[in-house]
From TrEMBL, chain A:
UniProt record similarity statement: Belongs to the binding-protein-dependent transport system permease family. HisMQ subfamily.
Main location: membrane
Membrane topology: Multi-pass membrane protein
Record flagged with keyword Transport: yes
Transmembrane region(s): 20-46, 58-85, 97-117, 155-173, 204-229
Protein name, per record: Amino acid ABC transporter membrane protein 1 (PAAT family)
Organism of this sequence: Rhizobium azibense
Keywords carried by this UniProt record: Cell inner membrane, Cell membrane, Membrane, Transmembrane, Transmembrane helix, Transport
Keyword Cell membrane appears in the UniProt entry: yes
TrEMBL record, chain B:
ABC transmembrane type-1 domain: residues covered: 17-218
Protein name per Swiss-Prot or TrEMBL: Amino acid ABC transporter permease protein
Subcellular localization, as worded in the UniProt entry: Cell inner membrane; Cell membrane
Molecular function terms, GO-annotated: transmembrane transporter activity
Similarity comment: Belongs to the binding-protein-dependent transport system permease family. HisMQ subfamily.
A single GO BP: amino acid transport
Keywords: Amino-acid transport, Cell membrane, Membrane, Plasmid, Transmembrane, Transmembrane helix, Transport
Membrane-spanning residues: 20-41, 62-84, 90-113, 200-221
Origin species: Rhizobium etli 8C-3
GO cellular component: ATP-binding cassette (ABC) transporter complex
CDD domains: TM_PBP2
SUPFAM superfamilies: MetI-like
Length: 241, 229
């Protein structure tokens, strides 16, 4: 490292020997991991919610085990456990198909594991949101002769979003923060990038404060975006409170 | 699945469980006290106190606990020896430990979340009850101690149970700052015996049992006060 002492601005500059660039790349991968996990979560959650509402006893039982287990076990243990289980499972599958074992990209693992965790929470959020749609609205759509797809697009989704949005916003905030845990299994995102920057310059305090502020900025911007979306999907509804 | 390692690791496992429990109890108790102050600052404080409390909650709720933990352990931990005389002082053996930093950051983090819960609950106490208290001539402090706070805690009780479980689920993070908690013991077992899943399963069962106990305790607590629903 540089022999002369570096100022705060030098340390955080985006170009070497500053570490700002490393932090920003880390922040970008944090957002990418979170977005990927959030999307997988929505898919799993939709499937889970429809499965729970389908009334199939066996399916309902399986989904209950899924959502209860994921919500009861500490995130860190889930992430570490699923990381190993996912790797082992994939390699066992490949071995079964007589294919050579592969080393999976850390990004894919992080997204898959966090997405699987998000799916359990999403299942509950979406199930509640679907149940909160007044039955009369769906009956009315049926009475007008709407087909299932048209009904989904015109009635169920617009009626569901205002109910689901606060929960979805919470889950987005929690996945951006949970993605920091991926640092523990060694994939480089913002948290790990910060630790590297701190370890090689010994200016731990500055870097952790900087990355905390990056996370905070992400949260605050997300808040604004979700508020705007909520205002849009609630248009025409009476104001609460 | 082999669980024969449990016998030889039993003392380590129970010591780890004690560390986990200690972290939980310390952070919940101190965090709750701090949260009461933060909630009142937001509900009935002046502009300055209100802004500070809001900023505190936003910061601690908007950043990952892992980053806060590392900010305290690596960041403040690396600045502490610069304070003259601290290294020789009585407190150094405590301030050197990862446990201290874990306890402090978990407490501050828990306080931020709990303050939000309490703020809502304080606002949810029916105005008439507070007015009745004032009409009886209660001073502000008596009003808070006898009516406002107990009623708010009663209202927030189910949410508090949820927050404590969330806090319990956050405790394994302490292993990243060299605290020998239950999870750290599990990863030590993994390194020694190359068993991946068994230690994680044992730790998970511990957490599930603890969650069940917390839920049960709060059900008893809630049953203490009859409520009309």
């Amino acid at each position: 490292m540089a022999t002369e002492p570096l100022g705060i601005l030098d340390l955080l500059s985006p170009y070497p020997p500053g570490w700002g660039g490393t932090l920003l790349v880390g922040a970008a991968s944090t957002i990418a991991i979170s977005a990927g996990a959030f999307l997988i979560g929505i898919l799993l959650g939709t499937a889970g919610a429809l499965g729970k509402l389908s009334g199939n006893r066996l399916l309902g039982l399986l989904l209950n085990v899924y959502t209860t287990a994921i919500r009861a076990i500490p995130e860190l243990i889930l992430i570490v456990g699923l990381y190993y289980a996912g790797m082992d499972g994939l390699n066992a599958l490949l071995a079964g198909l007589n294919l050579p074992a592969i080393e999976v990209n850390g990004f894919v693992v992080a997204v898959a594991v966090l997405g699987f965790v998000q799916g359990a929470y999403m299942t509950e959020v979406l199930r509640g949101a679907i149940l909160a749609i007044p039955v009369g609205q769906i009956d009315a759509a049926k009475a007008f002769g709407m087909g299932p797809m048209l009904r989904l697009r015109r009635v169920i989704l617009p009626a569901l979003l205002p109910n689901a949005l606060p929960g979805l916003a919470n889950l987005w905030m929690s996945v951006t923060k949970d993605s920091a845990l991926v640092a523990v299994v060694g994939y480089q995102e913002l948290a790990l990038a910060t630790r590297l920057a701190g370890a090689s310059t010994k200016h731990y305090f500055i870097f952790f404060l900087a990355s905390a502020l990056l996370y905070l900025a992400l949260t605050l911007v997300s808040n604004i975006v979700f508020d705007l979306i909520e205002r849009h999907v609630r248009r025409g509804q009476p104001k609460l409170g | 699945m082999t669980f024969s390692w449990i016998a030889s690791y039993w003392s380590l496992l129970s010591a780890g469980a004690v560390q986990t429990l200690l972290l939980l109890v310390i952070s919940v108790i101190f965090g709750f006290v701090l949260a009461i102050g933060l909630a009142f600052a937001q509900v009935s404080g002046g502009t300055m106190a209100r802004c500070l409390a809001r900023g505190y909650c936003t910061f601690f709720r908007g950043t990952p606990l892992l980053i806060q933990l590392w900010l305290f352990y690596y960041g403040i931990g690396s600045l502490l020896p610069l304070i003259p005389g601290l290294r020789q002082s009585l407190f150094w053996p405590i301030l050197r430990e990862g446990f201290f930093f874990a306890a402090v950051s978990f407490t501050l983090n828990y306080a931020a979340y709990e303050a939000e819960v309490l703020r809502g609950a304080l606002l949810a106490v029916p105005k008439g009850e507070l007015e009745a208290g004032r009409a009886f001539g209660m001073r502000p402090f008596t009003l808070v101690r006898r009516i406002w706070l107990p009623r708010a805690i009663r209202i927030a009780l189910p949410t508090i149970a949820g927050e404590i479980v969330m806090q319990l689920k956050a405790t394994p993070l302490a292993f990243t700052v060299t605290v020998m908690d239950l999870y750290a013991v599990a990863s030590k077992v993994r390194q020694d015996t190359l068993l991946v899943y068994e230690p994680l399963i044992v730790v998970t069962i511990f957490y599930l049992i603890l969650t069940a106990i917390i839920a049960f305790a709060f059900r008893l607590l809630e049953a203490q006060v009859p409520s009309r629903r």
